[in-house]
Each structure stands twice: as C-alpha cells, then as structure tokens.
Amino acid sequence: MNPINFNEKKGFICDMDGVIYHGNKVLPGAAEFVNWLQSEKKEYLFLTNNSGYTPKELAQKLERMGLYVPEEHFYTSALATASFLREQAPGCSVYAIGEAGLLNALYDAGITMNDVNPDYVVFGEGRAYSLETLTKATNLVLAGAKLIGANSDVSGPVENGIAPGCRALIAPVEFATGRQAYFCGKPNPLMMHTGLKLLGCHSGESVMIGDRMDTDVISGLESGMSTVLVLSGVSTEESLTPYAYRPNAVLKNVGEIPKLAKESCPK
Predict the structure, then answer these.
(1) I need a labelling partner for 168 at 20 to 30 A (CA). Which of 40, 204, 236, 261 fits?
(2) Domain over 11-49+187-263 is classified CATH 3.40.50.1000
C-alpha cells in the first residue's frame, strides 16, 4: 500500500470510540492529534456509528476530557439515518428504539413517532431495549413497517469490556420476521459521501481513521480515501489477517499522525 503524506492531506474523517476515547477516558495521543488538526487548519470530522449521542453531547463529552471541538465537527449514524429517511419518505413516521441522539435527529428531520402503524421501525443502541420493545417491533414489521438500523456494528468498546451493538440488537427482529434490516451508518457509502461533502474535500485528498477493519477501513477504502487503522480500540495486528484488504497505515494510536507529519516535513 502507498504510504500517506499527512501534510498533503486536506480532510480527515475520524472514528471516535476506540480512537479518541474509550468509555469516559481519553486515549493516548488523542489530544496531540486534535491539536495538530486545529493548528494545521485541516478540515476534520468526527464520524461515529454510535447513535446515542447528539453532536452537542459529543462536544461536551470531549470537553470533559479536555478536548475542545465545536459541535459542527461531529456526524453520527443517527443523523445519517434521519437524512436517509427524510430523502426516502419525507414526513414519514417511525417506531424508534434508541437514545436522545437518534430521537432528536429524527424529530429534526420532520419524522414523527408512531407505535401503531409506522412506516419504519428504527433501531439504535439504547437502554429502552427490552423483550417488550422487541415484541412490539417484531409485530410492527410483520404488519408492514420497514426495518432500519442506525449502524451495523455487532459490538462496541465500553469501559468494562464490550457491549452488543445495533446489529446484534436488531438481529432478533430479523430472525423473528424473516426481514433484513437496512443499515445507514458505516460502512454504508451514503454516510461517507455525506462526510466528505461536509468537509468540502475530495476523497483523494482525505484520510479515514478508525479502529475497525469491517466498518472504518472498508468504508474509507471503498470511498477512495487513504485509510489508517489504529490499534487503540478493538483491533490488533493479528485481527487484520482474515481480511483481503489492508489499510494504508497501521498505527499504535492517532498521536502517531502528527509525529509522522513532522518527520516528513522538509528539513
């Protein structure tokens, strides 16, 4: 794979969980990376498949960790889901299982809540998940509602280990109904194209950074971007072996990016 000259790249799309923070702890190198993006005046966007948080909540979460990033630099799978539904069926109604990030995004897109005869059943991550909501969702899908998932992550890192992700949570409804969900988050190209549009950058001048091969690296690769896998989240060197594709760079953490950029500067 071709090495990346980070100084020449204009746009950076970066995952959050396992890259910038783990639970409520900032990861090594994250502060140096954010400072470098801002001091070098790079276009950057934090893109997360976590549908639970609003951009404002994500900005406040980073601020509590000592990282100051304005909320316009965040884009979530909840926003991608709301955008998809608004384009597909303006003014539609949904039965949604998720947190504030998903519900707020749907409301802001003009989508209403409906637990009787919704057009869509929409899943995100959420504490409202229960046998009762699963049963409700199953019967609404059997009655004709289309099944949507905010993202296809089967798991995600939390402070005390790994938690089931949206793909795992929606699976019982898929099995019970025989219907396949459509997922709006990474690696769906729609989310990456929106990210590049928000950056105002072409794919060839942009970098995708993440800790997962199956969502972050593949979405960057298929969008024509340079890709970086960091080993600060769920991936290890050994976990790359089964994949037929490779990232342009494998780094210990995002803090190595400003170091590599400095090393490649003309003396």
Answers:
(1) 236
(2) yes
